[in-house]
Amino acid sequence: MTVDTAAHVIDGKAFAAGLRARIADAVPAFVAATGRAPGLAVVLVGDDPASAVYVGSKGKATVAAGMESFEHRLPATATQTEVEGLLAQLNADDAVDGILLQLPLPGHLDEQAAVATIDPDKDVDGLTPVSAGHLALGIPGMVPCTPYGCLLLLQDRLGDLSGKDAIVVGRSILVGKPMGQLLLGANCTVTMAHSRTRDLPDLVRRADIVVAAVGRAEMVKGDWIKPGAVVIDVGINRLPPADGAAKGRLVGDVDYAEVRALASAITPVPGGVGPMTIACLLRNTLVAAHRRAGLADPEGF
Ligand code: NDP
Predict the structure, then answer these.
(1) What domains are there in the chain, each with its CATH number?
(2) What 3-state DSSP class applies to 35?
């Protein structure tokens, strides 16, 4: 008889579906209290095909949750003033509770300046300087969706994270930095690693929790992992197509086959962290709508 010692596979798709269902269940009470549905506005500048796909699926998920979706498209030639003008208009629109500016913007635009014009109360992507400041100070605010989704998966798997050694590989504004803050807020001892980190495998080997958000296919290897660690793979990388195939396979930043043999739990790619991002965007929109309406935060989110 062989014993399967491979890690538990964390089903982000199922967890995200459950979260979306709970959000949809909470919407009617908001409608009853305010006479309107929570509204999410998504702004797409230019015609990047991947961004257009993301915007389309965000819109569909918003409507499926019983919320109002507003989609705004500006041409790739839009000026900084036009982008910021549209964001100001959405800031002033009472039907809009959440604003998401789809990134990246075309190269001639100043992304940080555009994001900073979003009203922090409607910043469902959690990327404004005010939201980042709230997160760093431990003040309730809007938290970036992908790292928040990772935290929910970790808490679901491990319960209380207090005292765990966690390493976050990657320090981007979108994922790595807020992930580190969230883990610190959950009382982990956090190491932040990046491209200048020395002895990365040794540092990873000490961690009970590993979050990889690097953007390098299968970089984290099996012999970097402490037996029993929980591994969250944020990376989405497409390998070159194998012979004859139109597209290459999607893989994460973790060598799944190797790491699964040592970890106690691991997120797959696809089907792990990815589906959590949209579910947490809907969660943030629901929370923003409650706060803007002067209602208590919905329970259980
Ligand atoms: P960025 O490119 O913005 O950041 C990558 C980070 O990795 C940087 O901090 C960089 O360090 C670090 N890094 C690069 N090379 C190394 C290395 N060899 N060793 C250690 N650290 C390294 O990427 P994002 O954070 O935006 O995204 C990371 C991955 O997550 C990507 O694959 C992306 O597609 C995916 N992603 C997935 C999402 C989802 O919904 N599942 C959402 C968002 C992103 P330095 O700062 O020193 O340059």
Answers:
(1) 34-119 (3.40.50.10860), 144-275 (3.40.50.720)
(2) coil
